[in-house]
Amino acid sequence: MMMVPPRTHVSYELKDDVAVIRLNDPTSKVNTLSVQMQAELTEVMGEVWSNGAVKSAVFISTKPGCFIAGADINMIQACKSSEEVTSLSREGQKMFEKIEKSPIPIVAAINGSCLGGGLEFAIACQYRVATKSRKTILGTPEVMLGLLPGAGGTQRLPKMVGLPGAFDMMLTGRNIRADKAKKMGLVHQLVDPLGPGLKPAEERTIEYLEEVAVGVAKGIANKKVSLTKEKGFMQKLQDTVMGLGPVRKQIYKTVSDKVQKQTKGLYPAPVKIIESIQAGVEQGGEAGYVAEATNFGKLAMTSESRALIGLYQGQVICKKNHYGTPEKEVKKLAILGAGLMGAGIAQVSVDKGLTTILKDTAVDGISRGEQQVYKGLNDKVKKKALTSFARDTILSNLSAQLDYSSFKSADMVIEAVFEDINIKHKVLKEVEAVIPPHCIFASNTSALPIKDIAAASKRPEKVIGMHYFSPVDKMQLLEIITTDKTSKDTTASAVSVGLKQGKIIIVVGDGPGFYTTRCLAPMLAEAVRVLQEGVGPKRLDALTTSFGFPVGAATLADEVGIDVAAHVAEDLGKAFGSRFGGGNVDVLKTMVEKGFKGRKSGKGCYIYGKGKKDKSVNPDAEEILKKYKLAAHPAISTDSDIQYRLVSRFVNEAVLCLQENILRNPVEGDIGAVFGLGFPPCLGGPFRFVDSFGAERLVGIMKRFEDIYGNQFTPCQLLLDHAKNPSKKFHK
Amino acid sequence: KVLSIQTKSKKTLARPNVKNIVLVEGVRTPFLLSGTTYSDLMPHDLARAALQGLLHRTAIPKDVVDYIIYGTVIQEVKTSNVAREAALGAGFSDKIPSHTVTMACISSNQAMTSAVGLIAAGQCDAVVAGGVEFMSDVPIRHSRKMRKTMLSLNKAKTLGQRLSLLGSIRLAHLSPELPAVAEFSTSETMGHSADRLAAAFGVSRVEQDEFALRSHSLAKKAQDAGLLQDVISFKVPGRDIVSQDNGIRPSSMEQMAKLKPAFIKPHGTVTAANSSFLTDGASAVLIMSEEKALAMGYKPKAYLRDFVYVSQDPKDQLLLGPTYGTPKVLERAGLTMSDIDVFEFHEAFAGQIMANLKAMDSDWFAQTYMGRKSKVGTPPMDKFNLWGGSLSLGHPFGATGCRLVTTVAHRLQKEGGQYGLVAACAAGGQVSDTHVQHSLVVPAMIAFCTYAKHLYEL
C-alpha cells in the first residue's frame, strides 16, 4: 500500500452542502500556485467533484493579506526551453478550464492580493466575492515581468471586462482595488473589512468573508442568486459596438500603435499579449489558448523577461534591512532645508507616521515647503487614494520652523541644504550643538564625499549619506552612503527609515559621486560632447529613448538641472581627471550664466511652456553649442555608435564601482541604475546588460572608441576579466 | 416603612466635600416619527413644549432657575442657540442665560453633565437641561459653488459685474447639499458602521430582530400600563393634542425577517426594523443642588452621582462606548455590575446593543483592547431597558439622554431599586435615506443615579 503524504497547502471541510476549500502555503508569507499547491488543489477538487453530497464550493485563503499572489516564478525559471514553459501553461489552462466547467458552482472568496495566476484562478470560478480591504488588489502584473497571463487570462478577461478593459489590465499590469474591480465586473460582490470583535480583526474578516461566500454558494446552487447580470444600456451598446469586426480591428491597431510608441519595440510581452487576445477573440477559444501558451513559452525565454524578473527579485532584496534592527527606532525626524528635496523627504516621512520637523532659514522657504507637502497629499485626496481627514491627520505630524527648537528630541537629522561643503560644515556644527547623543546626522548630497562632510563632526560614527532622488515622492530609490567610520547601527537606522519611507535601498561605499552620480557623470559628459558634435537635443533624446532610457539624455540634463550637472561635472572631473572628460564643462557653465538652468528655470536644452509636454529646442542653447562645436569623427558617429558611446561609459563606470568596492554586489548596482537613473529596465541594469550582451563584445566596441578618444573608453580591469573568461557572469 | 427601605438599601455614594446634586423632575414631549404630526413646527417649538411641561410639573417660579442648557445635533440655522429661543418662548425670565451644546447622540447627556458641573462648582443651584431634535425639516444648503457666487453677488458693484456673476451659474451649481449622510472623518454612515460592528461580533440577523422585537413589546407594555410618566401632552397648533409616542409597533419575527438589509447589500443584517428611526422630540430635566431642592420643598427623584465620557476609534469601535465606559464609571463609584438595579442603554441599533453585550462578555476583548484582566460582564436582561428603548420609543438624537436618565429614576422608584446606570453611544448626528442614523460616534456617556426614596419619603 502506498502512503499518501498529508496535505499541507489545501484543506477542505463541508459546511452543509458547501465544500469550503482553504488555501495556505505554510512555507511562505504568500500563497503561490506552486507545484505542491497545484497538486493538492487537483486532488481536493477530485474529491469534491466525486462527492454527490456537495452542491457548491468556496475557495478561500486563510493567509492574511493574500489570496494567491501569482504563479511561482521559480517554476518558470527552472525551465530550460520555451516548449517546457508552454506545456506548463497548457497544464494551467486545463486545470482552470475544469474549474470553469465545474458541475457545481464555485465561489472565489478573495481577501488580499489576487494577482497573476491567482487572478486567472479566480476568474475561472463562477462567482467572486472580495473584501473591500486596502490589501485586496486584483491584477495581471505578468507584463512587468516580460510575460503574459499564461493560464487562460488572455482569453477570459476580454469576455469578463470587455476588450478595452482587458487590454488596459494586461498591458499596464496595474493593481485594481476591490471597489474598482466591482465596477469593472471583475468581482460580483464586496464585503467590508471588519474591526475588532471577539477575534483579531483580519481573522474575523476572513471568517465573515467565508460566511458570506458560503451563503452565496448556496444561493447559486438553489438558483436564488443569478450568475447572469442584467446588462445596462451602456453595456449593451458597448457589446454591440464590439461585435463589429472593423471596430475591433481598429482597436487592435490603436492599441498596437500605442504599445509600439511607448515601448519603442524594446519589450516583446505587450505585443504577444495583444496577439494572444486577438487570436482568442477572432479565431475562437482553442486557437486563443494555443496562442497564449506558445507566446508564454516564447516570452519566458527572452532576455527582456529575465532582466525584468531579475529587477523584481533585486527589488525584493533591496526592500529588506540587512543591517539588523537599530538600537533605537527613529520616531522623530528633522529635515534641514525646505527646498524641493527637503519637502519631498518630509512628505514621504509624515505619511508613514514619522514626527517630522522641516526647518529652513526663511519664512518663504518653509511656506513653499509646507505647500509642497500639502499639495502632494492633497493630490492623493483628489485621486481618492486618501480621505481629507487622513490628510489632515498626516499633516499634523509635520512642524515647519525656523529655529532649532525641539531638535533636542530628534532621533535623526537629514540635511538637504545647498551643495557646498562650507555650508554643510556650518549646519553640521550647529546641529551637533543641539541634538541628543544618539541622534544620527544624514546628509542628502548627490556628490560631496561623506567623509569630507563628516570631517567637521565630533562623532563621525553617527554621520551617513542618504541620497534621495527628485521628485522624492515618485522616485523609488534611496542610495545610502557609509564611510569607514559610520557605525553599523547608524546604517541600520538609516536603512530602517528609508524602508519606512517606502524606498528601495542600496548601500554603497563613500567616494566622489558615490555610485549613481558617478555612473551618470561620464554619460552626461559624453552627451555634451555628442551635442557639441552637432547632434541636436531632439536627436540625442531619440537615440537614448530608443535604447530604452525612459528619459532622453538632453531632457534628463534639464530635469537634473544644468547647474547641478555643471557642478557635478566639475567636482568629479577634479576627482577623476581626464577619464571624466569628453564634453566641455564650459558649455554647461555658459548655459548656467545665461540662466538656462533646465526645467526649473524654464529654459535649458529646451524651452518649457506651461503644459507638461509643451517644449521646444532652445535656440540660444544651440548657439552656445555652435560656439563650442567639435568635429564629429565619422568612424564612430553612427546612431548605434553614439548610443554605445553613451551606454558603455555608464556601464564601465558601474563595473569599476564594483571593482573598487563602492558597490557591494551587482544586484544593488542594477537596482540603483534602473530605479535611480532610468537605465533601460529591459536590459535589467548595467551588470545584467554585460552578462547578456557579452563582456567581450562590449570591450571590443569600447576599444574602437578608445582608439579615438583615449582613456574615457578604457575598459576597467573587472570588465576585461569578464571579457577574457566568458563563463564569468555577474548574475548566476 | 422607613426602616424597611433602609435595610434594603446599600451604601450611600455621597462623598465628602462633594455637593449632592439631584434630579428633581424630567419630562419629554411624545416622540413622533418624523414627518408626522410635528412636521410643520420648528425645533424650538418642541423644546418650548418640553420646557413648559417641566414648568407645569414642577411649578418652579420662572426666575428661580439660574441657567438653561439644551443639546441638539442637526441645527436649524435660524435658531442656532435653540436653548435661548425655547427658554424665551416658554416664558422663562429673560434674565436667565442659556446655551446650546452638541455632542451627537449624547448631546443632552452633555447638557445634563454641564449642569452638574455648574452646580458642583458653586456657580448655580438650579439648572434646566434638555435636548431637542427635529428631523421633519433639516437645513439643505445651496452648493458651495452657488454660495460663493451668491456671496460675491452681494459685493458686486456694477450691473455688469452682477450679470457676469449670474452668467457664471451652471446647472451643477444648483444641486443642493444635504446634511451629510456620511461621517466626516470616515465617510461611513452610521448604519453601515453598525452592520460591520454586528458582523465583527458575529451578531446574527435573528438575534437583532429578536432584540428589536423585545424593545417594541416592552415599550408597548409600558405605554399601556401608563409607566411612561415623563411624557407630557402637547397641543400642536392647528392639530390635535399629542399625548403618546407613535413609533411603538410590535411586529412578528416572520414579518421582520422579510425586510431587506438597509445599508450593506445584499448580505448585511441591519434593517429598518432593527434600527432606531428618525424621530422628532424634545426633553427637559430640572437639576438642583440637594440643599436648594429640599429648601424649596421638592422631593427629588434621584441623585446624579457620577459620569464618565470615553472615546474610541471612530472607524471600527465607534459604537462600543458603553463597553468601555461602564466598567470605568463602576470603578469610580466602587460598585460592581451586580450592585446595579436598573440599566438604561441607548439602543441605536439592535446590532450595536448585541455587539456591546458580546464585547462585555469577552475576556479576549477586555484583555486585548481594554487592558483589563478579565471581561466587564454583561448587565442581566431582567434589569435592562424594561420599558422599551430608542428602537421602539424613538430617538430624537439631541433629546434621548434626558429620557434615559428620567426613565432610570422612574424605574428605580417603580421597581424599588437603589442604583441605576445609563449608557449611550454617540455620533455626529446625520441623516440617511430611509431610516435613522446617528452617525458616528465617539464618546459614550455614563451617568449614575441613585434612587433617593429612602431619604425623601420620610
Automatic annotation (TrEMBL), chain A:
Residues carrying the site annotation Important for hydroxyacyl-coenzyme A dehydrogenase activity: 467
Annotated InterPro entries: 3-OHacyl-CoA_DH_CS, 3-OHacyl-CoA_DH_NAD-bd, 3HC_DH_C, 6-PGluconate_DH-like_C_sf, ClpP/crotonase-like_dom_sf, Enoyl-CoA_hyd/isom_CS, Enoyl-CoA_hydra/iso, Fa_ox_alpha_mit
Reaction catalysis annotation: (3S)-hydroxyoctanoyl-CoA + NAD(+) = 3-oxooctanoyl-CoA + NADH + H(+); 1'-[1,2-di-(9Z,12Z-octadecadienoyl)-sn-glycero-3-phospho]-3'-[1-(9Z,12Z-octadecadienoyl)-sn-glycero-3-phospho]-glycerol + hexadecanoyl-CoA = 1'-[1,2-di-(9Z,12Z-octadecadienoyl)-sn-glycero-3-phospho]-3'-[1-(9Z,12Z-octadecadienoyl)-2-hexadecanoyl-sn-glycero-3-phospho]-glycerol + CoA; (3S)-hydroxytetradecanoyl-CoA + NAD(+) = 3-oxotetradecanoyl-CoA + NADH + H(+); 1'-[1,2-di-(9Z,12Z-octadecadienoyl)-sn-glycero-3-phospho]-3'-[1-(9Z,12Z-octadecadienoyl)-sn-glycero-3-phospho]-glycerol + (9Z)-octadecenoyl-CoA = 1'-[1,2-di-(9Z,12Z-octadecadienoyl)-sn-glycero-3-phospho]-3'-[1-(9Z,12Z-octadecadienoyl)-2-(9Z-octadecenoyl)-sn-glycero-3-phospho]-glycerol + CoA
UniProt site positions, description: Important for long-chain enoyl-CoA hydratase activity: 120, 142
Active site residues per record: 479
GO CC annotation: mitochondrial fatty acid beta-oxidation multienzyme complex; mitochondrial inner membrane
Keyword Transcription regulation: no
Signal peptide from the UniProt entry: none
Listed GO MF terms: enoyl-CoA hydratase activity; long-chain (3S)-3-hydroxyacyl-CoA dehydrogenase (NAD+) activity; NAD+ binding; transferase activity
Residues covered by the 3-hydroxyacyl-CoA dehydrogenase C-terminal domain: 513-608
Associated pathway: Lipid metabolism; fatty acid beta-oxidation
Principal cellular location given in the protein's record: mitochondrion
Enzyme Commission number, as recorded: 1.1.1.211, 4.2.1.17
Alphabetical keyword list: Acetylation, Fatty acid metabolism, Lipid metabolism, Lyase, Membrane, Methylation, Mitochondrion, Mitochondrion inner membrane, Multifunctional enzyme, NAD, Oxidoreductase, Phosphoprotein, Transferase, Transit peptide
Oligomer and partners: Heterotetramer of 2 alpha/HADHA and 2 beta/HADHB subunits; forms the mitochondrial trifunctional enzyme. Also purified as higher order heterooligomers including a 4 alpha/HADHA and 4 beta/HADHB heterooligomer which physiological significance remains unclear. The mitochondrial trifunctional enzyme interacts with MTLN.
Name this polypeptide is given: Trifunctional enzyme subunit alpha, mitochondrial
Gene symbol of the encoding locus: HADHA
UniProtKB/TrEMBL annotation, chain B:
Chain's gene name: HADHB
Domain Thiolase N-terminal stretches: 21-291
Keyword Cytoplasm: no
Residues covered by the Thiolase C-terminal domain: 298-435
Family statement: Belongs to the thiolase-like superfamily. Thiolase family.
Pathway(s) annotated for this protein in UniProt: Lipid metabolism; fatty acid beta-oxidation
E.C. designation(s): 2.3.1.155, 2.3.1.16
Coiled coil: none
Role according to the record: Mitochondrial trifunctional enzyme catalyzes the last three of the four reactions of the mitochondrial beta-oxidation pathway. The mitochondrial beta-oxidation pathway is the major energy-producing process in tissues and is performed through four consecutive reactions breaking down fatty acids into acetyl-CoA. Among the enzymes involved in this pathway, the trifunctional enzyme exhibits specificity for long-chain fatty acids.
Organism: Myripristis murdjan
Database matches in InterPro entries: Thiolase, Thiolase-like, Thiolase_acyl_enz_int_AS, Thiolase_C, Thiolase_CS, Thiolase_N
Protein's recorded name: Trifunctional enzyme subunit beta, mitochondrial
Subunit structure: Heterotetramer of 2 alpha/HADHA and 2 beta/HADHB subunits; forms the mitochondrial trifunctional enzyme. Also purified as higher order heterooligomers including a 4 alpha/HADHA and 4 beta/HADHB heterooligomer which physiological significance remains unclear. The mitochondrial trifunctional enzyme interacts with MTLN. Interacts with RSAD2/viperin.
